[in-house]
């Protein structure tokens, strides 16, 4: 009965909004016609202006902006400023254009929806106990709430790995282009045309910042801050130093290309050295028990048969 009441209320609200939108659209159309006639420019095309904001759907003009403002206010009240800044940085690192407030409200709405659906299903199943009916929706809600954050961290980590993987090629191409006589902006534009994926997006943003008048050292520093990449941080420092001292950027690019290759080799050696420690736990849990069963199993069976245990 309560569900029917809620459905009837939502239908009434939708009909009221549709009627209000039609009245506003009719009034705007007549106002446009009267204004055009007074100006002596009225035609049949002047009566209908599809680019006018008042002719946009009621959802886009009224409901969606109100929902957006409400979500921003709720997100600012429920989350601290440092959490929003960190979330916004993760969204930028993952390549998402969504704001931190919209992402937070999306997580909350999805979690509440999952809670309602799981609670309804739990109470409709007679085989579940009371504790299971109360705990299952909470577990589902927590899992659904945490999943977007885990997915965001995974996307950001993969994007950072993709950028780090493409950096040696980027610096080699930049070094060759600058040594061939191109300016840094032209060389970067040429390199961006050969890239793809996340690396292309980030360096295209750097190129756009430089075209807007931001110094190249500051643009590269912002790139390093967005991606949290140690090689890019060092490269931004080298570019800033070459700008201050007046040195050539080609030498800095050569040094950076050599350093990043050495950095990747050191990372590979570090990961290879950590493999024995990482593989120790799977061996103890899965491989050693099977080996003990195969080696000691026949001996245990013989001892049991000998002593009639």
From TrEMBL:
<dbReference type="InterPro" id="IPR018076">
    <property type="entry name" value="T2SS_GspF_dom"/>
</dbReference>
<keyword id="KW-0812">Transmembrane</keyword>
<feature type="transmembrane region" description="Helical">
    <location>
        <begin position="130"/>
        <end position="150"/>
    </location>
</feature>
<dbReference type="Pfam" id="PF00482">
    <property type="entry name" value="T2SSF"/>
</dbReference>
<keyword id="KW-1003">Cell membrane</keyword>
<feature type="transmembrane region" description="Helical">
    <location>
        <begin position="279"/>
        <end position="301"/>
    </location>
</feature>
<feature type="transmembrane region" description="Helical">
    <location>
        <begin position="102"/>
        <end position="124"/>
    </location>
</feature>
<feature type="domain" description="Type II secretion system protein GspF">
    <location>
        <begin position="172"/>
        <end position="296"/>
    </location>
</feature>
<dbReference type="GO" id="GO:0005886">
    <property type="term" value="C:plasma membrane"/>
</dbReference>
<feature type="transmembrane region" description="Helical">
    <location>
        <begin position="6"/>
        <end position="22"/>
    </location>
</feature>
<keyword id="KW-0472">Membrane</keyword>
<protein>
    <submittedName>
        <fullName>Type II secretion system protein F</fullName>
    </submittedName>
</protein>
<keyword id="KW-1133">Transmembrane helix</keyword>
